[in-house]
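Handout, page 2. Input:
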Amino acid sequence: MAKKEKLTKPTATAIAVEPVLGCVIVSKSLFLETMEAIEKQYKHDQKCNTAFKTLLPNDYTSGYDNHWVNNELIKYLQKAMNDEHAESWIEYFLWELDFGKKYRPGSVIRKDKTHIDLSNTGKLYDYLIEENKSKCLHPLSELRFWNDSTVECLICGHRGLTF
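Output:
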């Protein structure tokens, strides 16, 4: 019978511990559905705002505003897709490219002068995945769960608390 290997806990001072609430894998279909829902809500909100301006032209206090939920959903997608920075590709696609409708070939260029196709949500997803190939996204298959309520990524060594 083979001898069992004993797992040892690293010391708390040797690692940076961050809370990990769960592992959400954003598939392409989930990303596409979520972005479609954001666009649908955005268009609905625009129609509601137009209707309120028509019905209540001098009313500036009871305006319809749904941006809080959308902002949080976008922030969640940015976090899940490792796109949390001042120059977010998701925000650029949504607001500057009007959900890809304003994209023109050659309008988005990398530093190395190659073109980035952001003509639709699927292309945005593919680009974000490509950008993250060199970064560890902590795939579930590569996580080790420890008895001290921490989880460690076997690829990059990141360790965090589980709840």
